[in-house]
């Protein structure tokens, strides 16, 4: 069932340490594990209750309870009126509850066994003479949660993690997540040891021919050992530019997978969808869902010289094991992003990666947990719901006087007539 075991490294814990090995399974075992996983997903989907159906059931139960209560009151009073009649003295049942229109975001599916972050199978133990425990496969939810917390290991597989945000698992799942993150960031090899070519090694013209297919199908996810690999000299391996070392493990996207999964459903047969296109009027009526931009990461076999620095500190450092006997010296590469990750390479075709650390990523500043989300507001703020002080008596009187109806203005013609009448009266008196 297993191929070859490789010692991955040690993660130190508070009470005991984790000794970790990795291996590859045979294709038959991967197929069996994926079939079992698909069956489990189908059972889980079958047990999920539709929210709309649940709301309808709640409305029906609510209506039945109201009708039973009205019937009981009618029996007690001795009335023979029918429920819901026009002459009924009791109020009609309340209207049904409004349907819940909230739609939960789609859950990102995990990658199957043997693919992406689950390419390798890991085993861990606290005692080299004891039994080994197989660690579970990674899911995007676990990876995203592990990136938001910063917690040391205790050495107990079943230890619960009390963190914020909440971690959906125990220390066993957290250990597997950190192993996957460390492997994706620190698994390196000398330049030219691996190649994408099917037959020829190196960087010849034959590897550049399928460039169009690569753009159509996406970045390459598989490689092989270059049979014509020419060992890199020691002076190049210990070059500070790190141009002769490359990453040979797939980058984990922020989504928690190595390959992008689009939450927007795509048609299974795009050719048929184009042939049976709806009319223009229907297209205008239906709003078009905008698909999110796919996440991308650095491709495989990317040189370490392209890695970002950490506050003016290079992500990698390299040195020689001996300056006296250079013909027997070994190049040693150290990661500053994941302290404890090392890679050594001889002047031949031998190299190896190993991790000896606490399983924590380097932090430039002290770790600060994510803040709590803001409290949701039930109603928008406004004068209708805001608390105000009651006005006093004088204030109410001032308000009443200010809002009294104003007298109508006198027309100018009437004023002139009054003035003329007054003049005539004056003349008569004279």
UniProtKB/TrEMBL annotation:
GO terms for cellular component: axoneme. Residues 196-227, 262-307, 387-430 are annotated as: Disordered. Its main location: cytoplasm. Keywords: Cell projection, Cilium, Cytoplasm, Cytoskeleton. It comes from the Eukaryota. It is found in: Cytoplasm, Cytoskeleton, Cilium axoneme. The keyword Coiled coil does not apply. The keyword Nuclease does not apply. InterPro entries: Radial_spoke. Pfam families: Radial_spoke (PF04712). Residues 202-216, 269-284, 412-430 have a biased composition (Acidic residues). This is Uncharacterized protein.
């Amino acid at each position: 069932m297993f191929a070859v075991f490789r010692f991955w490294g040690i993660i130190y814990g508070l009470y005991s340490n984790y000794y970790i090995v990795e291996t590859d399974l045979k294709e038959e075992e991967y197929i069996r594990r994926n079939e079992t996983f698909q069956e489990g997903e189908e059972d889980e989907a079958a047990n999920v209750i539709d929210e709309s159906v649940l709301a309808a059931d709640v409305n029906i139960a609510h209506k039945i309870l109201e009708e039973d209560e009205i019937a009981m009151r009618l029996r007690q009073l001795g009335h023979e009126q029918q429920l819901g009649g026009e002459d009924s003295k009791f109020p009609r049942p309340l209207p049904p509850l409004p349907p819940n229109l909230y739609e939960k975001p789609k859950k990102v599916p995990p990658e199957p066994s043997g693919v992406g972050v689950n390419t390798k199978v890991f085993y861990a133990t606290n005692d080299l003479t004891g039994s080994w425990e197989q660690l579970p496969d990674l899911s995007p939810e676990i990876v995203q949660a592990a990136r938001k917390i910063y917690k040391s290991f205790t050495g107990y597989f079943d230890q619960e993690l009390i963190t914020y945000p909440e971690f959906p698992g125990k220390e066993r799942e957290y250990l597997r997540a950190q192993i996957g993150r460390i492997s994706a960031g620190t698994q390196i090899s000398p330049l030219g040891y691996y190649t994408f070519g099917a037959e020829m090694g190196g960087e010849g013209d034959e590897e550049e021919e399928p460039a169009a297919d690569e753009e159509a199908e996406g970045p390459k996810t598989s490689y092989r050992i270059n049979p014509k690999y020419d060992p890199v000299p020691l002076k190049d391996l210990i070059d500070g530019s790190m141009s002769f070392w490359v990453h040979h493990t797939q980058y984990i996207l922020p989504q928690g997978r190595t390959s992008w999964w689009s939450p927007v459903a795509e048609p299974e047969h795009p050719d048929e969808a184009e042939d049976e296109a709806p009319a223009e009027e229907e297209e205008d009526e239906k709003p078009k869902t905008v698909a999110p931009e796919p996440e991308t990461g650095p491709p495989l076999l990317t040189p370490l010289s392209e890695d970002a620095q950490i506050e003016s500190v290079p992500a990698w450092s390299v040195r020689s094991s001996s300056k006296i006997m250079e013909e027997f010296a070994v190049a040693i590469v150290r990661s500053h992003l994941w302290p404890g990750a090392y890679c050594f390479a001889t002047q031949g075709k031998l190299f190896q990666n190993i991790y000896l650390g606490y399983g924590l990523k380097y932090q430039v500043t002290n770790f600060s947990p994510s803040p709590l989300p803001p409290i949701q507001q039930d109603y928008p703020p406004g004068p209708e719901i805001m608390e105000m002080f009651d006005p006093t008596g004088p204030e109410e009187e001032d308000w009443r006087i200010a809002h009294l109806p104003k007298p109508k203005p006198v027309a100018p013609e009437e004023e002139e007539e009054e003035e003329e009448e007054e003049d005539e009266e004056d003349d008569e008196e004279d």
